Amino acid sequence: AARVIAIVNQKGGVGKTTTAVNLAAALAACGQRTLVIDLDPQGNASTGVGIPARARTLGIYDILIGECAFAEATMRTDTPLFDIVPSTMDLSGAEIELVGMPRREWRLADALAAARAADEACYDYILIDCPPSLGLLTLNALTAADGALAPLQAEFLALEGLSHLKRTIDMVAERLNPRLKLEGIVITMIDRRVRLAEAVADDVRAHFGAIVYRAEIPRNVRVSEAPSHGKPVLLYDLNCSGSRAYLRLAREFLQRENLL
Amino acid sequence: AARVIAIVNQKGGVGKTTTAVNLAAALAACGQRTLVIDLDPQGNASTGVGIPARARTLGIYDILIGECAFAEATMRTDTPLFDIVPSTMDLSGAEIELVGMPRREWRLADALAAARAADEACYDYILIDCPPSLGLLTLNALTAADGALAPLQAEFLALEGLSHLKRTIDMVAERLNPRLKLEGIVITMIDRRVRLAEAVADDVRAHFGAIVYRAEIPRNVRVSEAPSHGKPVLLYDLNCSGSRAYLRLAREFLQRENLL
Ligand SMILES: Nc1ncnc2c1ncn2[C@@H]1O[C@H](COP(=O)(O)OP(=O)(O)OP(=O)(O)O)[C@@H](O)[C@H]1O
Ligand SMILES: Nc1ncnc2c1ncn2[C@@H]1O[C@H](COP(=O)(O)OP(=O)(O)OP(=O)(O)O)[C@@H](O)[C@H]1O
Ligand SMILES: [Mg+2]
Ligand SMILES: [Mg+2]
Fold it and tell me: What is the pLDDT of residues A58-79, one digit of tens each?
């Protein structure tokens, strides 16, 4: 059965979407069948794989409110072995709508369980791109996930949010999902020439030890250009430093999986 | 009476907090009495002016749920004429708590009206730092505001969210707060040597015209270092390109105010 990983950090703009899309593409390049669930109302992951808003009829919102099954909302991307459940505009009202629903934190977990029972979600990995908050959408992702992966920008303000994130993950593990743990931290957009970035990266490694991936993602303009072409950076420019970094991350991720 | 401006953009990491704190400091340097309301559960604005989490007893959460008045939660910062209502940890549960409360979108507007009536909010400008979402906290800011100011990172994915933000502002103006409009867009973290950034900036100016401030904020590492010293960049390094840009922005903001 698929391993479900929530790509999560309530701090905005730290590289959650970029990591979900490009780690998924790199895992697919390594032969792993990968699904990304775009749980962010902004729909950046769906745009990043080349699915314009007008082509998204069913999405994760329809699955959360019980109107359709996983298989119906799943779409292929240009990358073989890499599928996506897109985000639609309806999702921006979902946080308020979910509050009054039964099993409101479990809606995604229940839908995934139903998909597995119907033998629909036959993936090796499912990555969930979360919005920049710790509201009901992110709680649904954490309740459905086997593990959490936190992209972290090498900036002072981003460091501050990490302890808040860790506490939230521990709370979800205690009350909703006992198998959940913070499995990995990925340092993103790092420019090693900047003293502050070096200091933050060293600080994180000192605090969180082996959880922090050795692979770091450098700041690389090709990575930020790729979404405007609707492609993961591996398809846009395989030789750039961003692509090589995400391939390194995928290999390290798979090494850890064999050890788990 | 104070003009209330919501610093808003659901896209994460675009410079909302940095703009709220540094525009406030620059307005204070120009002699304007300025209050920042930290409406983000992350509390980055409170950190950015040097108020550690343990020093925040009362905050905006207590005001929203009606447990204290504005004056009780307002704190001085190191910058003369610049005060702040901090964010506390309780705020992260507020979005869900607010859903069931009466006048849930009006809680901030009502509290500000009460403060004005009691002659407590005697500021020239009140800037509200919003979280990266369009949930109930941001809706409270938009309902209480006279105008909205959107920081925009010169990145492709950030451009995508702008039309969604504009629609939300128009919806709030129609249903909750007729005086609200998108008054300004500030291009942030721009490196004019990067072709994509140039293209995005030109695109935004073509679409949104005179709303876009002429003053642009360059990417400048001193800006991202300042919060780790608990200071606005004007206090941390007055001569850096970031400080000069925020002073230009404040002057242009005040020029527009005289014209409004
Ligand atoms: N390694 C990188 N090099 C250069 N730019 C990057 C890199 N990673 C991400 N970016 C750019 O930085 C911005 C923020 O990244 P991204 O949107 O993935 O973050 P996020 O955490 O998903 O944001 P949000 O909190 O809004 O969901 C985007 O414009 C993206 O293209
Ligand atoms: N002009 C600049 N030059 C360099 N770094 C900057 C600049 N403006 C902001 N930053 C840094 O970029 C990061 C994002 O900025 P900031 O936290 O202000 O954005 P935000 O929109 O408030 O984020 P969130 O969506 O999480 O609330 C921070 O680490 C900040 O220090
Ligand atoms: Mg994202
Ligand atoms: Mg912020």
Answer: 999 999 999 999 999 999 999 9
Note whether A137 and A153 are within 8 A (CB).
Answer: no
Q: Which of B146, B221, B141, B227 is nearest to B189 (CA)?
A: B221
Q: Is A150 helix (H, G, I), strand (E, B) or coil?
A: strand
Instruction: Measure the CA–CA gap between B64 and A12, rounded to whole angstroms.
Output: 23
Tens of pLDDT, residue by residue over B104-134, are 999 999 999 999 999 887 999 999 999 999 9
pLDDT tens figures, B34-53: 999 999 999 999 999 999 99
CA-based nearest residue in chain A for residue B12: A12
pLDDT value, residue B1: 83
- Pick the closest to residue B85 from B76, B93, B94 (CA basis): B76
Cβ contact B137:B182 at 8 Å: no
pLDDT at residue B120, as a whole number:
82
Pick from B157, B175, B260, B186: which is nearest to B16 by CA? B186
CA A252, CA A152: separation in Å to the nearest integer?
Answer: 17
Shortest CA distance to A157 belongs to which of A132, A184, A138, A139? Answer: A132
CB A13 less than 6 A from any atom of ligand 2:
yes
Query: How do strand B34-38 and strand B125-129 relate by DSSP bridges?
Result: parallel
Concatenating the DSSP letter of every residue in B43-74 gives -HHHHHTT--GGG--S-HHHHHTTSS-HHHH-
Sheet holding B75-76, edge to edge: B75-76, B82-85, B34-38, B125-129, B3-7, B147-153, B182-188
Give the strand pairing for A75-76 and A125-129.
unpaired
| Distance, CA of B203 to CA of B200 (rounded, Å) | 5
Segments of chain A with pLDDT less than 50: none
User: Are the C-beta atoms of residues A252 and A214 closer than 8 Å to each other?
Assistant: yes
CA atoms within 13 A on the CB side of B243: 15
Which residue reads 């985000």 in tokens? A87
User: DSSP 3-state assignment of B194?
Assistant: coil
Task: Name the residue with tokens 């479900």.
Answer: A4
Is B17 in Cβ contact with A157 (below 8 Å)? yes
Which residues on chain A place their C-beta less than 8 Å from a C-beta of chain B? Answer: 10-14, 17, 41-44, 47-48, 89, 92, 95-96, 99-100, 131-136, 153, 155-157, 160-161, 164, 194, 196, 221, 224-225, 227-228
Angle at B82 between CA B251 and CA B247, to 5 degrees: 20
**Cβ-based contacts of B132 with chain A (< 8 Å):** 12-13, 131-133
